[in-house]
Design brief:
Blueprint (H helix, E strand, L loop, with lengths): L1 E3 L6 E4 L15 E5 L4 E6 L9 E6 H10 L3 H8 L5 E2 L2
Length: 89
């Protein structure tokens, strides 16, 4: 994940794995924004579709509810060991 502070909001770019190479980063990644109203806005770019980014906004509560329903807490906590965060200034 790469964090880019912005004027209005911070943008969090999400890459598929830690082995992403710089040349692969030339394609726009998926990214999300954490909002003050406890929602998350997710944007996904489709390569060669010539369509606008797909955007969805969901509440943090809904995300947590889904994680519980999927019994995914263990999987999410396991991801923390693999998470690499790069902060840009």
């Amino acid at each position: 994940m790469e964090i880019y502070p912005g004027h209005a909001k911070t943008k969090y770019l999400v890459w598929p794995d830690q082995n992403i190479r710089e040349e692969a980063k030339q394609l726009e990644p998926n990214w999300f924004t954490l909002n003050a109203d406890h929602t998350v806005t997710y944007d996904s770019f489709g390569v060669h579709t010539f369509e606008a980014d797909q955007t969805a906004t969901v509440s943090e509560a809904h995300i947590l509810k889904q994680l519980r329903a999927d019994h995914a807490a263990k999987k999410v906590y396991g991801m923390l060991d693999q998470l690499q965060v790069v902060k840009h200034h």
